[in-house]
Amino acid sequence: MNHMPLFESQNLRLTPLDAEKDAQAISLWTYELDIAARLREDQPARPMAAMEVKKIYERWQKEADDSNRQFLFAIRKRETYHTENDTVIGVLRIMHVEWVHGAAYLDLVIGDHEDWQRFAREALDLALRYAFDELSLFRVTAVIAEHNQQASDLFEQARFTLEVRQRQAVYYNRQAWDKLHFGLLRPEWKMQQLAEVSA
Amino acid sequence: MNAGPCSNACFTGKLVRLVAYDPEKDTEYMARWNLDSEYQQLLDSGPARLWTPKQMKEWLEKHLDELYGFTIHSIEDDQMIGLIDLGGINWVTGDSWVGIGIGERAYWGKGYGTEAMNLILRFGFEQLNLRRVTLNVFEYNQRAYQSYIKCGFKEEGRMRQWMQRGGERFDLVFMGILREEWETVHAEVLHTASHPLPTG
């Protein structure tokens, strides 16, 4: 078996989520309400203090441990030799895993716009390798709001298919937007891998 | 607009009425319906499972508070025939999920579910101020799909090959209805019902 590292790429590392240490940085991202909404799914979004972010992470971690249906990572820039000093730039969640059906959702949060531009695709590639090669899933879904143009662009570039458009299911900046579901199937991802190798 | 009171009439149609859950009584029926594995496979994507009425009662008592749910009773014989719930409501966008199951097979394909759905949509739009209602239906459940179309739902897409049953893969279909769409469809339907929608 040809081993490809799961937790590192050219510029990034996936590390455990460290609620204690990362909560402060992440709480600053929640002033972007689209990010806050993804952390606090069951209630209206608002900016959150580090203490609240930490609580959410602890709850997610407990769900991950109890249910085995959720996988959590921090995304860090590879800056130093010692992983623990690397700056956290985002969070990756693979969640609501349906083992019977081989299906799951993927949520990629990157806090800073510039980091998104530089690293989102690289982070998504790590996420997909983990979902398909390690979890052996058949398909992944990413749900985003229509106003999040940079996310639509990313999933389109990565050859996801826009599968569902829930009309006016998001309210943001004084108006209703559609909620978009992008899907990628294992055979589609495999084809891309082969195309890359042969290119 | 001259709206009448929302009393029993709001929850009563020609074939069915919606009745608040009573965990004590209802779970006997629910446990019996679950023995019908086809019913479970039409209703839920999880593996079909069996529970005792007591386990179901504990579950229902714990979750009742989060649900805007009802049992469905046939008016003619006052039999409990199914369940219907609004849940997972997003109060900012006014979006709710809806789920329905008709456990008594004798009542399949005769318009009971369609009418129950019309009643809960009216409750959602007129009393909870919802803006839209969302549901999922499995590709192989054509009977339900047709019923939802009759209620005014529109297909909003499909998650391709999302589920696996008996070694085959099926799409997960998403449907939605906006309040304006519901108003257009139901202006006619509810006028001809026994308890018409009040108009001003």
Observed structural traits:
heterodimer, A: 199 residues, alpha+beta, Aminopeptidase, 7-stranded mixed sheet, 6 helices, B: 200 residues, 7 strands, disordered C terminus
Mind explaining what this structure looks like?
The complex is a heterodimer of chains A (199) and B (200). Chain A has helices at residues 19-29, 33-39, 50-67, 113-134, 149-157, 186-198, and strands spanning 12-15, 71-77, 88-98, 103-110, 139-145, 161-172, 175-185. By secondary structure, chain A is of the alpha+beta class. Chain A has one domain: Gcn5-related N-acetyltransferase (GNAT) (Aminopeptidase, 3-Layer(aba) Sandwich), CATH 3.40.630.30. In chain A, strands 1-2-3-4-5-7-6 form a seven-stranded mixed sheet, with helices on both faces. In chain A, β4, α4 (113-134) and β5 (139-145) form a beta-alpha-beta unit. In chain A, α1 crosses α3 (50-67). The longest helix of chain A is centred in the middle third of the chain and has 22 residues, at 113-134. In chain A, 35% of the residues are buried. The mean pLDDT of chain A is 93. Chain B is an alpha+beta fold. Chain B has one domain (8-192): 3-Layer(aba) Sandwich (Aminopeptidase). In chain B, 34% of the residues lie in helices and 31% in strands. In chain B, β6 and β7 form a beta hairpin. In chain B, α1 packs across α3 and α4 (112-126) packs across α5. The longest helix of chain B has 15 residues, at 112-126. At the A-B interface, β6 and β7 of A face β6 and β7 of B.
